[in-house]
Amino acid sequence: MSTQAQPDYAALASDIKRWARELGFAEAGISGVELAQDEQHLKNWLDDGYHGEMEYMERHGTRRSRPDELEPGTQRVISVRMDYMPPGTEHAWDVINDAEAGYVARYALGRDYHKLMRNRLQKLAERIRGSIGDFGYRAYVDSAPVLEKALARNAGLGWIGKHTVLINKQGGSYFFLGELYTNLPLPIDEPASAHCGTCRKCIDICPTQAIIGPYRLDARRCISYLTIELKGSIPEELRAPMGNRIFGCDDCQLICPWNKFAQDTAEPDFAPRHRLDGAKLVELFAWSEAEFLQRTEGMAIRRTGYEGWLRNIAVALGNAPPSDAVRNALTAHRDHPSEIVREHVAWALKQQAADTAA
Prior knowledge:
Blueprint: H1 9-22, E1 27-31, H2 36-47, H3 56-59, H4 67-70, E2 76-83, H5 92-96, E3 103-104, H6 113-132, E4 137-140, H7 148-154, E5 159-160, E6 166-167, E7 175-182, H8 201-205, E8 211-213, E9 216-217, H9 223-229, H10 236-242, E10 245-247, H11 251-254, H12 281-285, H13 289-295, H14 305-318, H15 324-332, H16 339-357
Helix pairs in contact: 1-6, 14-16, 15-16
Binding site for cob(II)alamin: 64, 142, 166, 177, 224, 249-250
GO biological process, one term: tRNA queuosine(34) biosynthetic process
Active site: 142
């Protein structure tokens, strides 16, 4: 009776990293499933209420921090990262400093990354299967309760910076993360060490002071949360600091010294669509709901919804220099069916009137 030889897991781990690069990932690493310290950090964050309306962050209990509870039998996690900054994009600071333009977080300018990365992870799994036969796995890209940054850190892909974003020593922080949970007993990589030192540029630059201390983010103040996750009214005291940021915010990454090492993406699907890397606010505010749905098809921007899109742009127009074009654009939406839109338009018109009087 013959027994099947065990795979050479060290050689397989090396192959997995090579295959990942061939599939368009910048890097891959392998970690175990122990996340006790991160579980406590998450619990403290939730207990402090910093997650705001993101109730899904607490809905799944310990499955987020215990991979083998989420996917029974998981022994290792293969983490991958994929660069997203498109070459030739309008310079971020130039757009932020142009109060008549709308700033969209650079990750959201092109195609939504979820499906693209999940397909690549599936191909990676198929290559593994082709090498060793059937094995247990499940692919995740923001699609389940996963502590992706902690897992990526443990896999050696980077450290979690003071702004709570993962930073890679050779690649900065402009990248997406994805995971393959697997039952394969692969050798694990060394966790990445931290290299923020005494730097606190990300904390100091945050427009709404959402980073309340090193590694402590109050999402309720974060512009990414306010423009994407929050479905109701944006707190008035946070509207002016939002400036012209209409979907997400990159300031804490743009100021990070490690992003001088960031790499442009080679993925054409991440190229900006509809000139969203620097389009004028008045133009974007004029999109009908049908135009919004058509132009954001397959994009992360769709997540905010048309009502949220108008709400966010109304705030940015309220922060724009006074002009007839801005006032006319706002006035056209003053009687919008959405109470949320009407409220933010009214606020913006008041801001315009006050700036004109001054």
